[in-house]
Amino acid sequence: MSMVIPIERDPHATVQALLPWYARQQLDDAEMDEVRAHLVDCPRCRAELETEQALRALLTAMPPLASGGDVEAGLARMRARIATARPARAASAPRAAAPSVPRWFGWLLGVQGGAIAALALLLVWPQIQGPTGPDEPGYRGLSSAAAAQPTAEALVMFKPTATEREIRAALQASGATVVGGPTENGAWLLRLARDAQALQRLRAAPGVALAESLEPRR
Amino acid sequence: MPKWLRSTSNPSPPPAQAAGTVLPQAERLEQQLLAGVARGRQDDFEALYRLYHPRLQRFIGQMARYPELIDEVLDDTMMVVWQRADAFDGRSKLSTWIFGIAYRKTLKALGRLDLPQEDDDPDARIDPAPGPERQLGLAQTRQLLRRALEQLSPDHRAVVELGYFQELAYGEIAAIVDCPPETVKTRMFYARRRLRALLDGHAGHLDGGE
User: Fold this and answer.
1) Does position A105 have pLDDT exceeding 60, yes or no?
2) ipTM score for this prediction
3) Best interface-test mutation with B: which of A15, A29, A78, A81 has the largest number of B CBs within 10 A?
C-alpha cells in the first residue's frame, strides 16, 4: 500500500496537485474557479503552472520505459489461449442472435489500425443495423434525417509534416468538407465531392498519409 | 455533480440499456464489440484487442518497466475481457474497466517478481537540484526524466501515465486504480514534485521542445 499524505490542508499543494488537469481544463467549474482564484494571488503556483506545459511536453514526447511485442503476435497467442479455453466458455447460455461486426472489419483493422476501423465501423454501423427499434430510445444513426451531425463518408490522416497549405489544397482538390475529428489518433472525418475520383484525388495529394472511404462495401 | 464523477459513475442501470441515454459514439462502438464478446464472438474480441493493444501496451510498459512482463500482462488482461465480458456493468466507461484490470494484473505480476520495494514516498528521495551541470541538453534532460520516472513506485507511475499520456480526468484514474480521488491527486502531487525537482534548473531546455 502506498502511504498517502493528505495535501488538502495546504492550499498550494491542493492547487499544484490539480495543475495537470487544470492545464487541460479537465476540472469541474468549481475547481477551475478555485485554482484560478489561487493563481491570481500566488506567484509560486503561477510559476508551477508555467512549467506544467513544458513538463507535459517532455513527458509525452518520451518513448515508453519498456515495449512489448506487436499486435499480430499478441493476437496469435490469444487465439491459441481462446482455443484452449473455449470448452469452459461454451457452458454459458446462448443469447439471442444480434448483428455481428462485418467480416471486413478485421481486414480493415489489420491494414489501417484499430482507431480507423473503429471510426469506420462507427460510421457505417447505423446502416448495417438498420432502423432502431423502440427498445433503443437513445440510439440514432448518423445518417438519420434527425441527426445533428452530417454523415461522414471518408476519413483522412495527414502526415505529421503536412503544412496547412497542403491540407487545404488536399481538401479543395477532393471537394471535401471536414465534418468531424480529430479523433484520438488524429484522423479527420470528411464528406467528399459527388464524383468517383474524389477519394483518389485526396489520396494523391501531398501531405495525405491515408484516406479511406467509410461507405459500406457493396 | 463534478465532471469526473459524471464520467466515471452512473447510478442508473448500464448506460447502454438506460432509456434516453446517448453514449458517445466511440464508447458505444466499444460496448457493442464487448456485447459481441459476451456472446462468444471472436471477431469482435479481436477487434477490441486491436483497439486496446497500443494503449494497454504503453500503460503496462510504463507501469511495469520490464519488457518481459508486458505481453503476458496484456494477454492476461484481455483474457479476462474474453472470459468475463458479461461482468462489465456499464457503470463506467469500458476503458476504465479494462485499464482497471490491467492495473491490477500489472501489480500482481510485479509482486510475483519479488522486486525490492520501490518508493512509496517518492518525495523522500528527491534528487538535489543540479548544480554546475544545470545546462544539460534536451537528450540528457530526457534521460534524467526517465530515471526519475523509473524511481517512482508503480502506483505513482500509473497516475502519471494515466494523467499525462492517456489524458484522463482524476476521477477516472481513481476508478481505474480503485482509490479515492484525493489519493490520485496526492500521488500526482508527489510524482510531479519529484519530476519538477529533478528538472529544476533546466527550465531553458523545457521551453523549446526539440
Assistant:
1) no
2) 0.74
3) A78
